[in-house]
Amino acid sequence: MWRVLSTRGFEGLTLRAVAAELGASTGLLTHYFPNKRALLSHALEELDRRSAARPRRLAPVDGTPPPPVGLARLRAALLDVLPLDEATEAGNRIWVSSWDVALADPELAAAHAERYARSRVALTAHVADAQRLGELPADADPAGLAAGAQAFVLGLVVQSLFAPAEFPAERQIALLDAYLAGLVA
Amino acid sequence: MWRVLSTRGFEGLTLRAVAAELGASTGLLTHYFPNKRALLSHALEELDRRSAARPRRLAPVDGTPPPPVGLARLRAALLDVLPLDEATEAGNRIWVSSWDVALADPELAAAHAERYARSRVALTAHVADAQRLGELPADADPAGLAAGAQAFVLGLVVQSLFAPAEFPAERQIALLDAYLAGLVA
């Protein structure tokens, strides 16, 4: 399902295509997933799980220094969103793919809105830490800054998916760093 | 078609739904549009046309002062992207809706990539003007700045569509202005 979604999108997601990838019968699949929406819901939950389980840029590992805080942590959290390698590109492809259906489906829309709101809360905390550390201007509104940062990386995801040759990993990182430099100033 | 796309998205776009909106038969529609993709392609072209024809924030009108240049023009061009009213929200809903199909369809993907590249070229010119006017730092890379600005507004579009109550027009504008203030600094 993951492979089908990340290459053909939700529009190309059919029980038949997933069954073919699995080498299973369509009948077996319908036993678990009655329709496309059920497949997508499951894919998004799986994406959440993988996302939470994947080694973060800042996960503490035995023997390594403690994870960064403040601006460095904000940067790491934003980098975690970007399609910097094949796996994160596939994951982002699935997110973008889900927006069409989600916007027309109140339940999926609410789940997405909550995901983004949760992410803004986390980013706001990093911004506030950075302000306490004197890394970001104390007079800026942390929630506004977090919302802006989230908008920036989401839009960069879309641009990068459509024009991967123009937005290789190093350019995405450079653009993010230029954006963060603007916040600092 | 516009109404169907803007409320139900591409996933909800069927010849039958469009025929119902039109009060026409499905047969009449298939005469013009053999499939969903043809409908979407037409919708995107129509969106381009409406977008080009709609009164811009900076269109010169007889008797009004000349359109702004530099930073003010960059700001106006970015504001033109945002879902600040019902019409631009509906248009943006259709764009976001098209991303899923477009990413899986080389021809649509190329058309989208070209649209965004064209828009970056226009934004880059405004940035360069603003630099010449001393409104933006002369040492910044204009193309990078334009790509960042485009990412920012695209991401803000997505956030606003999912959480319209959290991102009313005035907040979108305030976030954009805070972003621009960061570029100036």
TrEMBL record, chains A, B:
<keyword id="KW-0678">Repressor</keyword>
<dbReference type="InterPro" id="IPR036271">
    <property type="entry name" value="Tet_transcr_reg_TetR-rel_C_sf"/>
</dbReference>
<dbReference type="GO" id="GO:0003677">
    <property type="term" value="F:DNA binding"/>
</dbReference>
<protein>
    <submittedName>
        <fullName>TetR family transcriptional regulator</fullName>
    </submittedName>
</protein>
<keyword id="KW-0805">Transcription regulation</keyword>
<keyword id="KW-0804">Transcription</keyword>
<dbReference type="InterPro" id="IPR039538">
    <property type="entry name" value="BetI_C"/>
</dbReference>
<dbReference type="InterPro" id="IPR001647">
    <property type="entry name" value="HTH_TetR"/>
</dbReference>
<dbReference type="Pfam" id="PF13977">
    <property type="entry name" value="TetR_C_6"/>
</dbReference>
<dbReference type="InterPro" id="IPR009057">
    <property type="entry name" value="Homeodomain-like_sf"/>
</dbReference>
<keyword id="KW-0238">DNA-binding</keyword>
<dbReference type="InterPro" id="IPR023772">
    <property type="entry name" value="DNA-bd_HTH_TetR-type_CS"/>
</dbReference>
<dbReference type="Pfam" id="PF00440">
    <property type="entry name" value="TetR_N"/>
</dbReference>
